[in-house]
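pinned: reference chain
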Amino acid sequence: MNRQHLLALAPRLGARADAFVEALNNAMARFAINTPARQAAFLGQVVHESAGLTRMTEDLNYSPGTLMACFNNKKVTRFTPEMAALYARTVHHPANQQMIANVAYANRMGNGSIESGDGWRYRGRGPGQLTGKDNYTACGEALGLDLVTCPDQVAEPTVGCLAFAWFWDNGNRTGKSLNLLADIGKIDRVSLAVNGGSHGLAERIALTQRALEVLA
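pinned: its structure tokens
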């Protein structure tokens, strides 16, 4: 993949394209993402998840309603209306993103309590939004990096792309390389493994198809 290929998929990158071309090529080579089908599927997910590689740290600038919709479900209420009004973005104050992360990610994914600050410390970073102390630990061990002590490394192109390639290879919920699904064109199942649902599926499929055309 070269600079022109990447800019065709992520045109807003501009001058940062060169850094990401090298980072993505190195990451794909390390984890055998080495056919057009595999690379297109990988790049389709990367570009969608990171808003065209322009977002390398999780955006927690939620309104109260969106905050509750994102993090509450039938089994768990992480934000009451009162908490959402206090921490989320309103006409009266900006979002307290640090507290949102600490509440949203407390006591799961290896994180400690709200007071521990782990939610903010291990919030989503990188093109694949690596999240949670357990994932930072496992990814760091696989890459030979101390991501627990220095999690901000994941927000940089080189480590961030490696982190997503690690996730692609064996850190995802299937426990298997997503190359296997890319090989048979199951982008819906790739997307499920990456995102946990069907969010943005149409764009993920379109980006994958575009990448196939660009890389041909």
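why pinned: Residues 3 and 17 are 6 Å apart (CA to CA). The radius of gyration is 18 Å.
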